[in-house]
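Narrative of accomplishments. A recurring question from our advisory board has been how the design workflow behaves on a single, concrete structure rather than in aggregate. To address it, we present the structure tokens for one chain from the evaluation set, followed by the sequence designed for it. No filtering or post-editing was applied between the two.
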């Protein structure tokens, strides 16, 4: 079974994504901030992470920075899903080796889920 970690401070985003996966194929873990997300990521070692950038306690970039300092985390697969689409944020995320940077307003849940399933190999 594949593991997906969704790190987003918006509960509606976490619930919307989590509800789209077959529990027999994908275990969806959720966190509401970067601090919790980092803790879960290092403990559970998910196959893929969907990370927001703007969150309380620890934002997504700070989480990615710490994640990349870990032996397992340096190669962890991450997609950023954020409201921020400016070049500065995209470039900052690229520094941490994210696979993709998706701007929320440009994507609907169905398309995001299809992209995640493809990356996890559970289409």
């Amino acid at each position: 079974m594949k593991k997906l970690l969704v790190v987003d401070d918006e509960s509606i985003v976490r619930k919307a994504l989590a509800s789209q996966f077959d529990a027999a194929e994908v275990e969806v873990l959720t966190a509401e901030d970067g601090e919790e997300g980092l803790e879960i990521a290092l403990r559970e070692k998910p196959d893929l992470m969907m990370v927001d950038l703007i969150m309380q306690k620890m934002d997504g970039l700070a989480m990615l920075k710490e994640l990349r300092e870990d032996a397992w985390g340096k190669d962890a697969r991450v997609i950023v899903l954020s409201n921020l689409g400016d070049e500065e944020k995209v470039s900052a995320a690229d520094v941490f080796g994210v696979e993709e940077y998706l701007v929320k307003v440009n994507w609907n849940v169905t398309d995001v889920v299809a992209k995640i399933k493809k990356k996890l190999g559970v289409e």
